[in-house]
Amino acid sequence: MELREWAKRILTADTLEEKLLCPDNLTDNCPGAPLLFNEPTRPPGMGFNKRSKEEKLPPFQTHDSSDNRAICLHRFAGHELLAVEIMAHALTAFPDAPKAFRKGVAHTLYFIRKSPGFAIGPPITMTCHDDLSW
Length: 134
Hints:
Low-confidence stretches: 116-134
Order of helices and strands: HHHH
Number of strands: 0
Mean pLDDT: 81
Radius of gyration: 17 Å
Strand content: under 5%
Structural class: mainly alpha
Number of helices: 4
Number of domains: 1
Distance between the termini: 11 Å
């Protein structure tokens, strides 16, 4: 799969499974013209919300509550998804960036999915291969 297509897929997918897809092989032969997005498409319930002061993250000392831990996890997961989308946007917005930079961004996107601490259980399973071809 072309790196540009993968990045576009991340930015336009409306399901988490599609956003987290890891192609077996990537090439960067056709980076195309700059492609800008106002904001990425998000799955239902994962849109961008401006939070009030009352909606701050629960204080650390209240994390013994499973509800408060769930709130934190939900927000952190959204933050990590945004990081993936920002990297994908860098790939579509700057097709003339040096190949080494683009390859580094692609490797980072793969690493995020391969990180031992980053796992989503059923129904989502993330398994990726680190055999990028350039």
